[in-house]
Amino acid sequence: MTFTIRSGESTGVVRTLGGELVSFINDGVEYVWQGDPEHWNGQAPILFPVCCAAKDGKIAFNGVEYPMTKHGIARKLEFLPVYISKDKVIVEQRETEETLKMFPFCYSLKAEYYVNDAGFSVKFTVKNRDKNEMTFCIGGHPGFNVPLREEDGTFEDYSLFFENAEGCTVSLTKDGYMDASVPKVDRLQGTNELPLKYSDYDNDAMIVENLPAKSVKLISRKTGRGFMFNFEGFNALGLWTPINKNSPFICLEPWNGLPADVAETTEAKSKKYAITLAPDEEYTVGYSVELIK
After folding, report:
1. Residue-wise over 107-130: b if at least 16 C-beta within 10 A, else e?
2. Is 224 helix (H, G, I), strand (E, B) or coil?
3. What is the pLDDT of residues 223-236, one digit of tens each?
4. Which of 42, 178, 216, 274 is the most buried (most CB within 10 A)?
């Protein structure tokens, strides 16, 4: 099932399978990657209760291990609509008999999508409905078309422009894992600009941490058009496009939680940036896109 929301020249489409935004069109331009299996059939999955790969495909709670698929359980399950208006949709997922086999907690995960003429916003709210303390990670994985328009040039005619990011070190993943043996990339030494280069993703994803300002602009250097991506409340930003495919999109991935480290255990509380909620507690975080024309 899908829901269409509108405001002025903006139209968004939210799909209940995975609870994700699968389209955002403004002034005739599609911003969201449309999911071509030749490159990547995903679009904007919600990562919960892990971001990227779990250690050895498992996660442990209080010493008991459970199987956990890459990026978690939410992206393959149905959400139910709980609020629908002209410009906003809220969908919700709760535990099922199947989720309890992988994530042994009663929970509520709500995803809120709002569109306006200036862009769109996404908000995730997690509630611990269990009698026990609950630990999880959460993140987004939205893919954006690059280029957005033919006149904007090619993928490598775009740059990411950070604010006050000079000196931030970029980590690389290898085979989906964090690995201290993989050299960090000093691409932000003395600059706030990170030009898009396919060769930067020959290992896998790039991860930027400790950014003083949680926003980045994706801009065509040819036309100056693009958008601002705001991710206040998230601790890390993953950057990804498929290896050796020259794909016409990039994913900007705000995470609270990192891919498994080759040196870590499977215990959920050992994961960097993991969140723990007491019974009945809620946690809310989100991201937004502001168009630059």
Report:
1. bebbbbbbbbebbbbbbbbbbbeb
2. coil
3. 999 999 999 999 99
4. 216
E strand or H helix at 85? none
- Alpha carbon dihedral 236, 241, 244, 246, in 10-degree steps, equals -140
Q: Which amino acid is at 159?
A: S
Identify the DSSP state of 263: T
Q: Which residue shows structure tokens 């935004």? A: 21
Give the closest residue to 229 by CA, choosing from 28, 42, 71, 31: 31
Is it the case that residue 167 has pLDDT exceeding 80? no
Task: Provide the residue type at 251 as one letter.
Answer: C
**In the numeric block, which tokens belong to residue 14?**
């939210």
pLDDT averaged over every residue in the chain: 95
Query: CB under 8 Å to 12, separation ≥6 — which residues?
Result: 4, 5, 6, 21, 23, 24, 25, 113, 115, 120
The runs of H, that is alpha helices, within 161-284 are none
Q: Are the C-beta atoms of residues 97 and 253 closer than 8 Å to each other?
A: no
- Per-residue pLDDT of 92-111, as tens digits, reads 999 999 999 999 999 999 99
Residue 71 neighbours by CB under 8 Å, 6+ apart: 45, 47, 50, 51, 52, 141
Please tell me the distance from the alpha carbon of residue 197 to that of residue 135, in angstroms, as a whole number. Answer: 36
Tell me the β-bridge partners of 46: 140
Q: Which two tokens stand for residue 274?
A: 């993991």
Q: Are 48 and 102 spatial neighbours (Cβ–Cβ below 8 Å)? A: no
Pairing type for strands 58-61 and 206-209 reads: unpaired
Choose among 138, 144, 208: nearest CA to 172. 208
Model's pTM, two decimal places? 0.96
